[in-house]
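User: Can you predict the 3D structure for this chain?
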Amino acid sequence: PDMEQKDIIDVCIGNLKKEPTLSNIKRSRAFIERKSSAYNTLGERGELGKIPMHSKVPGGATKDDMVWIYDKKFVRDEGRSYYDKIMKIPPFARCPFCGVRRVSTLDHYLAKTEYPTFAITPNNLIASCADCNKKKSNLVYKNREDELFHPYYDEFDDEIWLKANVMFKNEILFEFYVEKPENWTDEKYTRAKNHFDKLELNNLYISHAAEEFSECQYSLKRIYETGGNDLVQIELLDRIKEHRSNMKNTWRAALYEGLLNSKDFFDIYLGGRSN
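Assistant: Here is the predicted structure, written as structure tokens:
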């Protein structure tokens, strides 16, 4: 987010009359601004896990003060312009955690109840969908491997890791999973798996894949009837390339790659033994 912590605090307490919240935050603001800058430095280094949980902000602000200022001033009052600006960051308004649903809320990467210093820190606020926000909840990271992707600091689209199996047992079945790219460290791979599992992305992608397949199966069968397996493979390769043109890891690209690599799809489904 292209915004300064000090400006957000100024706006949020500009017409605040509530005491002792106002006095508490004024006394803590220097610490909050300093730690906001440190948050960015640690995020760039992949060291957010070094920030300890806490219930009070040095200077005087309490957890309740910081949660209140977020809920009442940042979300609903003078700070709303900053809230709306952060909401507009994800391309196409897609949740950066799941890559599917539309953003509808802000998520605290470090939960505001466990890390109140960062309740209105812009780099700790990420536009997300309500489902991912709910699944993430007040998640506390015990180690680096536990940390979900942080859209501002982590690059998880540098390699292809999202894969899909496609099987046929009276009907087409899909399963999405994480495969370790050759150039990834074990730590990055473990983080990807934990992110995938914590947010239950397999179930989400399966539901979308089933709908996508129901819409494309007839065209794929017509292509098969015209040119057999070779023509279907060309079509699938084109779709994979198209869906990876902007982002390597999308459920659609994984789905079509899964179809391309599925013996069941070609031998049973397209081969005429699907009844």
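The longest helix spans residues 201-243. The chain has nine helices and four strands.
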